[in-house]
Protein backbone atom coordinates (compact mmCIF):
# COMPACT_ATOMS: atom_id res chain seq x y z
CA UNK A 1 0.00 0.00 0.00
CA UNK A 2 2.90 2.31 -0.77
CA UNK A 3 0.73 4.92 -2.50
CA UNK A 4 -0.66 5.96 0.89
CA UNK A 5 2.52 7.95 1.58
CA UNK A 6 4.13 8.60 -1.79
CA UNK A 7 3.85 12.15 -3.21
CA UNK A 8 1.15 12.71 -5.79
CA UNK A 9 2.22 14.70 -8.89
CA UNK A 10 0.11 17.83 -8.38
CA UNK A 11 0.60 20.34 -11.18
CA UNK A 12 0.72 24.10 -10.61
CA UNK A 13 -2.27 24.36 -12.94
CA UNK A 14 -4.30 22.14 -10.60
CA UNK A 15 -3.49 24.34 -7.62
CA UNK A 16 -4.50 27.45 -9.59
CA UNK A 17 -7.74 25.77 -10.64
CA UNK A 18 -8.51 24.83 -7.04
CA UNK A 19 -7.81 28.41 -5.94
CA UNK A 20 -10.26 29.65 -8.57
CA UNK A 21 -13.04 27.05 -8.28
CA UNK A 22 -12.86 26.05 -4.60
CA UNK A 23 -12.76 22.34 -5.48
CA UNK A 24 -10.95 19.83 -7.65
CA UNK A 25 -11.31 16.16 -8.63
CA UNK A 26 -8.07 14.23 -9.05
CA UNK A 27 -7.77 10.84 -10.74
CA UNK A 28 -5.67 7.87 -9.61
CA UNK A 29 -4.96 9.27 -6.17
CA UNK A 30 -5.22 5.87 -4.46
CA UNK A 31 -4.96 2.40 -5.95
CA UNK A 32 -7.83 -0.12 -6.02
CA UNK A 33 -5.80 -2.35 -3.67
CA UNK A 34 -5.36 0.44 -1.11
CA UNK A 35 -9.04 1.38 -1.24
CA UNK A 36 -10.13 -2.24 -0.89
CA UNK A 37 -7.75 -2.90 2.02
CA UNK A 38 -8.65 0.13 4.13
CA UNK A 39 -12.17 0.67 2.78
CA UNK A 40 -13.38 -2.70 4.01
CA UNK A 41 -12.51 -1.68 7.57
CA UNK A 42 -14.15 1.75 7.17
CA UNK A 43 -17.38 0.17 5.95
CA UNK A 44 -17.29 -2.56 8.60
CA UNK A 45 -16.92 -0.04 11.42
CA UNK A 46 -19.58 2.24 9.96
CA UNK A 47 -22.16 -0.54 9.95
CA UNK A 48 -21.06 -1.93 13.31
CA UNK A 49 -21.18 1.42 15.12
CA UNK A 50 -24.28 2.85 13.44
CA UNK A 51 -27.19 3.25 15.87
CA UNK A 52 -29.87 4.53 13.47
CA UNK A 53 -31.83 1.51 12.29
CA UNK A 54 -35.06 3.31 11.42
CA UNK A 55 -36.55 2.77 7.95
CA UNK A 56 -35.53 5.55 5.57
CA UNK A 57 -39.15 6.76 5.36
CA UNK A 58 -39.14 7.57 9.08
CA UNK A 59 -35.99 9.70 9.03
CA UNK A 60 -35.41 13.41 8.47
CA UNK A 61 -33.88 14.72 5.25
CA UNK A 62 -30.50 14.91 6.98
CA UNK A 63 -30.71 11.35 8.31
CA UNK A 64 -31.87 9.93 4.98
CA UNK A 65 -28.80 11.38 3.28
CA UNK A 66 -26.30 9.01 4.88
CA UNK A 67 -25.19 7.06 7.91
CA UNK A 68 -22.47 9.21 9.44
CA UNK A 69 -19.69 8.02 11.74
CA UNK A 70 -16.83 10.25 12.81
CA UNK A 71 -13.25 9.83 14.01
CA UNK A 72 -12.99 6.20 13.01
CA UNK A 73 -9.21 6.72 13.16
CA UNK A 74 -9.50 6.51 16.96
CA UNK A 75 -11.39 3.20 16.81
CA UNK A 76 -9.18 1.19 14.47
CA UNK A 77 -5.41 1.22 13.91
CA UNK A 78 -6.06 0.27 10.28
CA UNK A 79 -8.30 3.29 9.69
CA UNK A 80 -5.83 5.40 11.65
CA UNK A 81 -3.09 4.40 9.24
CA UNK A 82 -5.29 5.46 6.32
CA UNK A 83 -6.26 8.82 7.83
CA UNK A 84 -2.65 9.67 8.67
CA UNK A 85 -1.51 8.93 5.12
CA UNK A 86 1.04 11.43 3.82
CA UNK A 87 -0.16 11.50 0.22
CA UNK A 88 -3.61 12.92 0.95
CA UNK A 89 -2.25 15.26 3.62
CA UNK A 90 0.37 16.66 1.27
CA UNK A 91 -2.21 17.22 -1.49
CA UNK A 92 -4.40 19.05 1.05
CA UNK A 93 -1.54 21.32 2.13
CA UNK A 94 -0.46 22.08 -1.42
CA UNK A 95 -4.00 22.92 -2.51
CA UNK A 96 -4.49 25.16 0.54
CA UNK A 97 -1.07 26.71 -0.12
CA UNK A 98 0.01 26.30 3.49
CA UNK A 99 3.11 24.73 5.04
CA UNK A 100 1.27 21.89 6.73
CA UNK A 101 -2.07 20.43 7.78
CA UNK A 102 -3.60 18.95 10.90
CA UNK A 103 -6.57 16.65 11.19
CA UNK A 104 -9.87 18.30 12.12
CA UNK A 105 -11.74 15.00 12.04
CA UNK A 106 -12.58 12.13 9.74
CA UNK A 107 -16.09 11.11 8.71
CA UNK A 108 -17.58 8.05 7.04
CA UNK A 109 -20.59 8.84 4.83
CA UNK A 110 -22.54 5.70 3.92
CA UNK A 111 -25.47 6.39 1.61
CA UNK A 112 -27.76 3.37 1.69
CA UNK A 113 -29.63 2.08 -1.37
CA UNK A 114 -32.58 4.45 -1.66
CA UNK A 115 -30.85 7.03 0.53
CA UNK A 116 -31.89 10.61 -0.11
CA UNK A 117 -30.08 13.65 -1.44
CA UNK A 118 -27.49 15.48 0.60
CA UNK A 119 -28.81 19.08 0.60
CA UNK A 120 -26.71 22.03 -0.51
CA UNK A 121 -24.47 23.42 2.22
CA UNK A 122 -21.00 24.66 3.14
CA UNK A 123 -19.13 22.57 5.70
CA UNK A 124 -17.54 25.44 7.58
CA UNK A 125 -20.90 26.49 8.99
CA UNK A 126 -20.19 23.76 11.57
CA UNK A 127 -16.59 24.66 12.39
CA UNK A 128 -15.29 27.26 14.91
CA UNK A 129 -12.13 27.92 12.90
CA UNK A 130 -10.35 31.24 12.37
CA UNK A 131 -9.64 31.10 8.62
CA UNK A 132 -10.85 29.55 5.39
CA UNK A 133 -7.78 27.29 5.13
CA UNK A 134 -9.81 24.13 5.57
CA UNK A 135 -10.30 21.34 3.06
CA UNK A 136 -12.20 18.06 2.83
CA UNK A 137 -10.95 15.02 0.92
CA UNK A 138 -13.97 13.02 -0.36
CA UNK A 139 -12.75 9.49 -0.98
CA UNK A 140 -15.20 7.02 -2.56
CA UNK A 141 -14.47 3.42 -1.62
CA UNK A 142 -16.03 2.16 -4.86
CA UNK A 143 -16.82 3.77 -8.22
CA UNK A 144 -19.70 6.25 -7.92
CA UNK A 145 -21.82 6.45 -11.09
CA UNK A 146 -24.44 9.23 -11.38
CA UNK A 147 -27.24 7.05 -10.03
CA UNK A 148 -25.39 6.50 -6.73
CA UNK A 149 -25.29 10.18 -5.79
CA UNK A 150 -21.78 11.54 -6.44
CA UNK A 151 -20.73 14.78 -4.80
CA UNK A 152 -21.16 17.93 -6.88
CA UNK A 153 -19.88 21.47 -6.37
CA UNK A 154 -20.91 25.05 -7.09
CA UNK A 155 -17.75 26.29 -8.80
CA UNK A 156 -16.29 29.53 -7.39
CA UNK A 157 -18.90 29.73 -4.63
CA UNK A 158 -16.33 29.82 -1.80
CA UNK A 159 -16.58 33.61 -1.57
CA UNK A 160 -20.41 33.71 -1.37
CA UNK A 161 -21.68 34.69 2.06
CA UNK A 162 -25.35 33.92 1.44
CA UNK A 163 -26.16 30.53 2.96
CA UNK A 164 -23.24 30.36 5.35
CA UNK A 165 -25.68 30.40 8.27
CA UNK A 166 -27.60 27.33 7.06
CA UNK A 167 -26.95 23.78 8.16
CA UNK A 168 -27.88 20.74 6.06
CA UNK A 169 -31.67 20.77 5.68
CA UNK A 170 -34.56 21.13 3.28
CA UNK A 171 -34.24 24.90 3.76
CA UNK A 172 -30.54 24.90 2.82
CA UNK A 173 -31.28 22.89 -0.32
CA UNK A 174 -34.02 25.24 -1.44
CA UNK A 175 -32.44 28.56 -0.55
CA UNK A 176 -28.83 27.87 -1.47
CA UNK A 177 -29.67 26.11 -4.74
CA UNK A 178 -31.98 28.97 -5.74
CA UNK A 179 -29.36 31.59 -4.89
CA UNK A 180 -26.65 29.75 -6.83
CA UNK A 181 -28.91 29.51 -9.88
CA UNK A 182 -29.94 33.14 -9.58
CA UNK A 183 -26.32 34.29 -9.66
CA UNK A 184 -25.20 31.85 -12.34
CA UNK A 185 -22.84 29.61 -10.35
CA UNK A 186 -22.15 26.46 -12.34
CA UNK A 187 -23.00 23.18 -10.60
CA UNK A 188 -20.34 20.62 -11.50
CA UNK A 189 -21.25 17.00 -10.89
CA UNK A 190 -20.39 13.65 -12.39
CA UNK A 191 -19.29 10.11 -11.75
CA UNK A 192 -16.22 9.23 -9.69
CA UNK A 193 -13.90 6.54 -10.97
CA UNK A 194 -12.29 4.17 -8.50
CA UNK A 195 -9.25 5.98 -7.13
CA UNK A 196 -10.61 9.44 -7.93
CA UNK A 197 -10.72 11.83 -4.95
CA UNK A 198 -12.20 15.30 -4.68
CA UNK A 199 -11.01 18.13 -2.46
CA UNK A 200 -13.13 21.17 -1.56
CA UNK A 201 -12.76 24.22 0.64
CA UNK A 202 -14.81 24.57 3.79
CA UNK A 203 -16.81 27.44 2.29
CA UNK A 204 -17.42 25.87 -1.12
CA UNK A 205 -21.11 25.02 -1.50
CA UNK A 206 -21.82 21.46 -2.56
CA UNK A 207 -24.42 18.70 -2.47
CA UNK A 208 -24.94 15.09 -3.56
CA UNK A 209 -27.82 13.32 -5.22
CA UNK A 210 -29.89 10.43 -3.92
CA UNK A 211 -28.71 6.84 -4.26
CA UNK A 212 -31.06 5.35 -6.84
CA UNK A 213 -29.04 2.16 -7.16
CA UNK A 214 -29.36 -1.12 -5.28
CA UNK A 215 -25.85 -0.77 -3.85
CA UNK A 216 -24.60 1.33 -0.93
CA UNK A 217 -22.33 4.28 -1.62
CA UNK A 218 -19.50 4.10 0.90
CA UNK A 219 -17.29 7.19 1.20
CA UNK A 220 -14.56 8.15 3.64
CA UNK A 221 -13.81 11.82 4.19
CA UNK A 222 -10.86 13.46 5.89
CA UNK A 223 -11.11 17.08 6.97
CA UNK A 224 -7.80 18.91 7.15
CA UNK A 225 -6.99 22.38 8.46
CA UNK A 226 -3.96 24.64 8.26
CA UNK A 227 -1.43 23.44 10.83
CA UNK A 228 -1.47 26.98 12.25
CA UNK A 229 -5.29 27.13 12.54
CA UNK A 230 -6.63 28.93 15.60
CA UNK A 231 -9.87 28.32 17.47
CA UNK A 232 -12.65 30.90 17.26
CA UNK A 233 -15.49 31.45 19.74
CA UNK A 234 -18.45 29.32 18.67
CA UNK A 235 -21.01 31.25 16.62
CA UNK A 236 -23.80 28.73 17.08
CA UNK A 237 -24.72 25.58 19.01
CA UNK A 238 -23.32 23.22 16.39
CA UNK A 239 -19.95 24.98 16.46
CA UNK A 240 -19.92 24.69 20.25
CA UNK A 241 -20.54 20.96 19.89
CA UNK A 242 -17.80 20.64 17.28
CA UNK A 243 -15.37 22.48 19.53
CA UNK A 244 -15.97 20.03 22.37
CA UNK A 245 -15.98 16.93 20.15
CA UNK A 246 -13.04 17.61 17.83
CA UNK A 247 -10.83 20.17 19.59
CA UNK A 248 -10.97 19.21 23.28
CA UNK A 249 -8.69 21.36 25.39
CA UNK A 250 -8.00 23.94 22.67
CA UNK A 251 -8.21 27.57 23.79
CA UNK A 252 -9.91 30.34 21.86
CA UNK A 253 -7.42 32.40 19.90
CA UNK A 254 -4.70 29.76 20.10
CA UNK A 255 -3.43 27.15 17.63
CA UNK A 256 -5.52 23.98 17.75
CA UNK A 257 -2.88 21.47 18.83
CA UNK A 258 -4.68 18.72 20.75
CA UNK A 259 -4.44 14.93 20.86
CA UNK A 260 -7.37 14.81 18.40
CA UNK A 261 -5.70 17.18 15.93
CA UNK A 262 -2.37 15.58 15.04
CA UNK A 263 -0.08 17.09 12.45
CA UNK A 264 -0.46 14.94 9.34
CA UNK A 265 1.94 16.56 6.88
CA UNK A 266 4.35 19.48 7.04
CA UNK A 267 6.85 20.86 4.58
CA UNK A 268 10.39 20.03 5.72
From TrEMBL:
Keywords carried by this UniProt record: Dioxygenase, Oxidoreductase
Molecular functions per Gene Ontology: 2-oxoglutarate-dependent dioxygenase activity; iron ion binding
Lineage summary: Bacteria, Pseudomonadati, Pseudomonadota, Betaproteobacteria, Burkholderiales
SUPFAM superfamilies registered for this protein in UniProt: Clavaminate synthase-like (SSF51197)
Gene source species: Ideonella aquatica
Stated name of the protein: Phytanoyl-CoA dioxygenase family protein
Matches recorded under Pfam families: PhyH
Domain of life where this protein originates: Bacteria
Amino acid sequence: MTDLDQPYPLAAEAIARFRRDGFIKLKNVLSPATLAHYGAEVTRLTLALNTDHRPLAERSTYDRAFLQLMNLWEKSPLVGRFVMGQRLGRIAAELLEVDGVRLYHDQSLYKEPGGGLTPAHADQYYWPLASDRTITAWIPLQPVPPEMGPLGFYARSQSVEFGRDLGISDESEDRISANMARHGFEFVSGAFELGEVSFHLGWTFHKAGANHSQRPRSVMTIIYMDAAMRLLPALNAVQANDREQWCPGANEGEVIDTRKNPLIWHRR
